[in-house]
Amino acid sequence: MEFVNVSLPWMPDHYAMVPQLVEKQLKTEQEAALRHNSKTPRYLHIASKKKNRWGHQRSYKLQVYSFAGEHLPESQAEERSMSWARYKVAITKHKDSEQTSSSLYSQNDVWSPAVDFSKYIEDNESIEDQDLVAWVTTGFLHIPHAEDIPNTVTVGNGGGVILRPHNYFDEDPSISSTDSVYFSPGTEDSCESNRMACLAHETCSPTLETFTYHGFDGVMKFHD
């Protein structure tokens, strides 16, 4: 996203800065290796030359919603064993010889790791019209505190990435779901449209009492 200075249609003599979507294609592995402290594009698409019925490139969007913490300085010798953490996202050409970003055996010799991820990017191969691999580093930092006892709250503590179709389909694919059910106003209680509304009519359904709730009656007493 970039800001551009444009003239206001209703006041041509006045200008305002407005955000504009700018497309840039990353063509090599080094261009597509986004460093830990670098600025990440707001929208990161892995696109195909094939287009949908609307003329847009069929693509998937990588949506990273958490990032790892500070990375070990590259000047440290043992950093090579975790060089994958240098990057928020790295896109490389698929190779059968590049299956993992690290190795269990690296812990035995962190100074000469069995897998050095940075080597995947050093050859700087083209990623145009290739089968690609997206290497994404996510994470979060949890600092122990008193509220962790007796149970650690997980709300707000999480990390991950979402791979979302973007112009990949011609429309929402769930429209074609064979299990879809359409409710029109007034049919919520119809047995034909909603079987859950007619459980009492089912042969093996239990007889359930009408649910009632009386708050804290009989449990707590409040006095003025």
TrEMBL record:
EC number: 1.4.3.-
Coiled-coil residue windows: none
Gene Ontology molecular function terms on file: copper ion binding; primary methylamine oxidase activity; quinone binding
SUPFAM superfamilies: Amine oxidase catalytic domain
Record's cofactor remark: Contains 1 topaquinone per subunit.
BP GO annotations: amine metabolic process
GO CC term, one of those recorded: plasma membrane
Annotated InterPro entries: Cu_Am_Ox_Cu-bd, Cu_amine_oxidase, Cu_amine_oxidase_C, Cu_amine_oxidase_C_sf
Assigned keywords, A-Z: Copper, Metal-binding, Oxidoreductase, TPQ
Lipid biosynthesis in keyword set: no
Domain Copper amine oxidase catalytic positions: 13-175
Gene3D superfamilies noted in UniProt: Copper amine oxidase, catalytic domain
Cofactor(s), by name: Cu cation
Post-translational modification: Topaquinone (TPQ) is generated by copper-dependent autoxidation of a specific tyrosyl residue.
Pfam family of the protein (one): Cu_amine_oxid
Family: Belongs to the copper/topaquinone oxidase family.
Protein name: Amine oxidase
UniProt organism field: Cyprinodon variegatus
